[in-house]
Amino acid sequence: MVKLSAVAAIAATAALLASATPSLAQGPSGPSAITPEVKALMATQDKLHKIADRFDRGNGFGGLSVDAGSKTLNVYWKGKAPAKVTAAAAVAKAQGLVVKIHPAKYSQAELKAEAARMLKAGAPIQSIAAKHDGSGLTIKQAAGFSAKAAVQSAVPVEVQAGDVELAASRLVDTSPFKGGAYIQNTAPDGAVQGGCTSGFAVVDNATGADKLLTAAHCGQSGSYYTNAAGDFIGSVEGRAVASDSEILGATGQARVWIGDSIENEQNQVALDVAGSSATIVGDWLCDSGAYSGTICQIQVVNVGLTVCLGSFGCVNNAVEALHRGGFSAGGNGDSGGPVFSVQADNKLVARGTLTAISVAAADIRPCSGVPERNGRKCSQRIIFPDVTAQLAAHNVRVKTIS
């Protein structure tokens, strides 16, 4: 979230429209980012996800990864894999896919229990996750912490240096509102708190009412959102720190802005949303923040992450992803923006909304879309909550095209 005063917000909006658009070489964005090659990889990973859904992830389950390039689902299991896993391998083979079963040293349940114990014990941990192959835990510590303080564990622990911060139209969207649009949070006293991005339109499972999903760190309970023109979007009706999600009382449509950022309002279209899905290590994804525009070539490197973000609190069931081209995957102002995969028919599958970026020196990249100003930074490494956790937290479902 980019913090702005009310006056600064007006000045920044004018500056955004006046600045030149960066070239795609500085971070691929716009409709051309969703190439036939990107869609082909995502179509293969969708098939691999369906194979993974054929078996329960119960006792002994160590983790999963997909390799869409080789059409392979890697399954890690502690002990002998159950019959449903071997049956899924046979189904995959008939479809030209491969399931490889690997031994896991630990189950996901064991590793998650140890991670919870370490967090409760107060170890200086910024983020912690079970490795997808069941081999141990990965921990990240902010600069200045001693690695020895975090490795007191009965399971193998890999300690990495790192630091993350909240990522915190497109520009003037109108009702029914789409994902990927610029939204600005306003406190009850009328003070503009900062600019973020709308996520996905959702539907309340209990009432059937339309809502709009974004990041909880973008606004407090009792606040409300407007577009850049000051037009009312909706008030915060529900907020969950553990999934960095909040629900706005707004009429949404099952579409997401795709294309350039609010820096250039020329090349923007809206694509339909077809559903939602959990995320697996190896998945290829795109995101579409209001400040950065649409970016693809983002691959998942970690799931099941718990990341603690200072006074905001800890976010669970998070995903870590990396831009494989070495460009920016997102930045400040993209918070709450949609993360998704793309089907062959150009329909989108919701995966989550952007929470944080790595601000480790090795991960900082030139920003796509809105340049670095007003404290904005961009990174090749992003973190977002798995959409399944966000939907469960509010008893909603992603709104889909009829």
From TrEMBL:
Residues 1-25 form the signal peptide. This is Streptogrisin C. Keywords: Signal. One of its GO terms (biological process) is proteolysis. GO terms for molecular function: serine-type endopeptidase activity. The keyword Signal applies. The keyword Signal applies. Gene3D superfamilies: Trypsin-like serine proteases (2.40.10.10).
